[in-house]
UniProtKB/TrEMBL annotation:
InterPro entries, sorted: TPR-like_helical_dom_sf
UniProt superkingdom: Bacteria
Protein name as catalogued: RNA polymerase subunit sigma-24
Length: 334
């Protein structure tokens, strides 16, 4: 099946894909000729995928070409690193026929290579948003192959956590939170210190949603302790304080919750916070108990680091001043 041995996997897939986003039309044509002559040149395909992923909505024919490269890779190089990135995404809503074609190819590939961890991991990622049951099946197969690899439990935990986003409060959401928490705990136990640190945010969030308030507080405090060393400081300060604020509010201490909200807004920021922005779950909860002044102050603090807010903080502030609770959208999940 695979022609990977001819050229090998991309050594730095993200860097190559980002290089592709800066290609000129002449360079694209040259790379297309190159992969036509050498189909197993994964690095060149990776650059092309970076290019087409950026312009596939605007440039005529780019979407179809992007799909063609994705399909070739599924059928011939499913273990390539690029297959585990968003650059190979095909949207089921906008491109249903192409999505289904790729789906069939992935199912065949996982049947042909049933014991390849990379293939199972990449296929599961492809199905993560639109075919979660299939994604879970593939991840569980991976867990059976390598039960001591924390990556599988972490991925299953993420799958359950994503499933919570569209659910309102209730038994179904809590059940998913409990399952997610269990998977993240397994991943934490199997991981080394650095990997454990990166799991803290997910652990704290799903522990709270699962109703294990003490565990949520414990993981949140650990985030703040780790932040003192400077590692991932911005994210840890933001999310650790927010979880502790939710715990305080759960326990009826509104003043302490307000204090934690402001501390969360005093984060120096991070690449994620600068682009996707701050989390608004605690802010929303405080608005619902009439604490609009502290939320407006929180918005002002967030302006210091949210570089890509596109005016949303000002829009939300106007709604809050009018005694309305904004629709925070994705900022309730980030």
């Amino acid at each position: 099946m695979s022609e990977m041995g001819v050229v090998g996997m991309a050594s730095d897939v993200q860097k190559l894909a980002m290089q592709g986003r800066r290609l000129t039309p002449e360079e694209v044509a040259e790379l297309e000729k190159k992969v036509a002559d050498q189909p197993a040149d994964i690095d060149s395909r990776t650059k092309l995928l970076g290019y087409y992923f950026l312009c596939r909505r605007e440039q005529p024919g780019a979407e179809e070409t992007h799909q063609r490269h994705v399909l070739w890779l599924i059928e011939n190089a499913p273990e390539a690193e690029i297959m585990g990135t968003p650059f190979v995404t095909i949207d089921r809503i906008l491109q249903p026929d192409a999505y289904d074609t790729a789906k069939k190819a992935w199912i065949k590939t996982t049947d042909d290579l049933p014991e390849s961890p990379a293939v199972l991991r990449h296929a599961a990622r492809y199905f993560l948003l639109h075919d979660r049951d299939l994604s879970e099946t593939l991840l569980q197969r991976g867990k059976r192959l390598a039960p001591n690899d924390p990556e599988w439990s972490s991925a299953v935990g993420q799958l359950y956590s994503l499933g919570m986003i569209s659910l309102s409060e209730g038994p179904e959401r809590k059940d998913l939170a409990i399952k997610s928490f269990g998977e993240y705990q397994s991943a934490y136990r199997l991981s080394g210190p650095m990997e454990q640190e990166f799991l803290l945010q997910s652990l704290a969030k799903v522990a709270f949603e699962a109703g294990d308030i003490d565990a949520a507080a414990t993981y949140a405090k650990e985030m703040l302790q780790v932040a003192e060393s400077g590692r991932n400081r911005g994210n840890h300060l933001h999310h650790g304080n927010l979880i502790l604020g939710r715990v305080a509010l759960f326990n009826g201490d509104v003043e302490e919750a307000k204090s934690y909200l402001l501390r969360a807004g005093q984060t120096p920021g991070s690449p994620q916070l600068k682009s996707f922005g701050p989390n608004m779950v605690l802010a929303k909860a405080l608005l619902e108990v009439g604490q609009k002044n502290v939320v407006l102050e929180y918005f002002e603090l967030c302006e210091e680091f949210w570089e890509m807010s596109r005016g949303r903080l000002n829009q939300w502030a106007d709604l809050v001043k009018a005694d309305r609770v904004p629709e925070f959208g994705g900022n309730l999940a980030y």
